[in-house]
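WARN no homologs supplied; continuing
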Amino acid sequence: MVYLAIPLALVAFTHLWNPIGFPTIHPDEGYYIGRSIHVSEGLGPKEDAARYDHPYFGWLFLGSIFSIFNYPDSTNPTPGNVNSIELIWLFPRVTMGILAVVDTFLIYKIAERRYNRNVAFIAAILFAVTPLGWLFRRMYLDPIQLPFLLTSILFALYTGIRVKQKESEENLAARPIEENKMTGKGNEKKGQWPWQWQRKRQKQGQVKDQSYYNYSGLKSISSQNLILLLSSGIFLGLTIFTKVPAITLIPLVGFIVFTNNKKSFKVLGLWIIPVILIPLIWPIHALSSGNMEFWFDDVIWQATERPESSLDNSLRDLLRIDPVLIVLGSVSLIYAAIRKDFFVLLWTIPFIIFFYLVGRVTYNYWVPLLPVFCIASSIFIVEISRKITGGTGKLIDRILPFAVTLSIVIFGLIINVMLLTADLTSSQIQAAAYVQYQLNNPNAIENGTPTAANDVTIISGPNYSWIFKYVFNEDNVLDNFRDRSSIDTEKYIMMTDPPYKTFLRRDNTDRSERLETLYDNTVSIAKFEGNASSYDFDKYPYFSIRQGRSGSEVDIRSSYS
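OK structure emitted
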């Protein structure tokens, strides 16, 4: 329990401390939270204006959680209140922190099952303190799908247990008791074969499950193994149904199932059925809605939206965020290749090949590989420590790997504290509260003209629009800057920030021209400065803050002042 309690306590600290202040609120979080509330309100898995950018399960899962806790109504949202906006953001961020704790537990159990307890302990510790852990604080789809992926792997590792138990007993049954020294609680006699006293115990009612000793049924799939197989397949199917690149993990989980079950193609075939069928719900839903052409175009758009986000660029970003884990993990992968550890290799190589071919990958896409980086690094630390000490079995053999791990833990905790103490979201939260105040407070007057919510359209990024639309139920809200919907009111408010400027720089359609025209017809009525710009991004570890600079300044502009 101590081995498990320490990494769980560490990950609870690094993922649940200051969840609102760090990191900044990313536009993608707004997309997924808005869609989740859309689901929780019974409005279906797809918003009308949304693209077919990702499958549905991410917000179906979150929407179910929101429904259980009656979110966001349970936060009692108050228009114009900063504390209310903070509370609205607290629930999703805490949810992500809890998922990170679950991830740590699953990583421990996977490594323990596949290798041993020492490897499991060190892997879970590395995962708990890695500076890359801040990626799990944001409501990205990548960390949302990770618990389902890890659960699929864990169930796959437990498949075939029943068969292995029976095979072991069958081997023991081939020798007399006096040779194998097997005991049967006093019911056996010297020279008696195990099946003889087992049958006697069955007749006496001491063993009720007679099928357990039916060695002739080894070729059949037990009900326990069938449940594990289907559960593994279902969870991997749900992982892919959350984000498509998870298809790169099919070789890994399939390899585990295949090798754990005496290389049975029958077992592999049963396992892969839900892996294929569950993700097909996405295109089938698009086809049934008559939107198959849009689905295909949107999938291509999602894969090629930002060509500058290459594999090389994402690796450079990862190195600048956590050089220790990335370097150690890379060396460990080479070591795994030398050892021919297919568990590690099949987890990483298909993923890297896939994104090399696709050509578009950002640093957060690497989240599914962070557990195997930690596991591979743990194996490397344990094995190299043993080679250094000569494997003598002395105290130094047991201490050295943990001493190395302790140095990494200290480094990771120092970096985490430096990052987690930053307050980067105050400008974003204050800006959202200010706009809502302008819409709902009858005393809010600009140049003698009172504002009214039904007379003003809000133009903002998705990290704000979901609050106005789903929490405060405003009518005139554009989903995001890409939204081409007409503005039916004479007045409008724009919330411009760094993501807005980034969109204008990258977009070369009439949408950017429209936004520039709208911008030119407004004046600034309030500005909220964040703390992100006060850090030196070129100094480690503040490159992570640079990745979240969207909270550095929010400019509120209106057309009616």
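The two ends are 63 Å apart (CA to CA).
OK
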